[in-house]
Amino acid sequence: METAQGLRIRGIRQRDLPDILDVDRRITGGSGPSGDRSAASNHFWTYHPPLSFVAELNGRIIGFVIGTIGGAEYSLPDCGWINVVGVDPEYQGQGAGRALVKHFADTCQKKGIRARCLIPRRTGRFEKMLLSLGFKHGELVDFVRDIE
Description:
This protein has four helices and five strands. By secondary structure, the protein is of the alpha+beta class. It has a single domain, classed as Gcn5-related N-acetyltransferase (GNAT) (Aminopeptidase). Strands 1-2-3-4-5 form a five-stranded mixed sheet. Strand 4, helix 3 and strand 5 form a beta-alpha-beta unit. The chain is globular and about 45 Å long. The N and C termini lie far apart (46 Å).
C-alpha cells in the first residue's frame, strides 16, 4: 500500500463539516450509514477537537477520524475513543485511513492515554489495520438480549 503523496493530517475544524459530510455521502452512496458504521454527522457535534482529524490531499478533505475522551462509562480510566473513521472511496487503499488512525493513536500516546476503538465483528480490513498499528483486543465484551 502506497500512501498518497502530499497527504496532510490536521485537526478538525467546525467549518470542515460540509466536506466531511460529502465524504460520508460518497462512502454510503447517499443512503445513510451502513450496518458497520454510523454517520459522521452523528458524532460531529460531540467530538473532542484534540482527538479529531481530517486528511487533506491537495487542499481537499479526503478522510476524517472523529474521536472523544471517555472511559468512566465503562469503569475504565480516561482513554481516546475513535467514534468514526471515513475515507473517500476514490482514495481508499492509499494509506489515508491508516495515517488518520496512526495520528489519533500517536496523539493519545502524547497525552498519556490509551487509544480505543469499538468495532463490529468481521470488519475485515479495518480490524487488520488496527492490529497492524498496535491495537489489540481489549477488556470490553458485548452482551445482547434479543427482543422476544
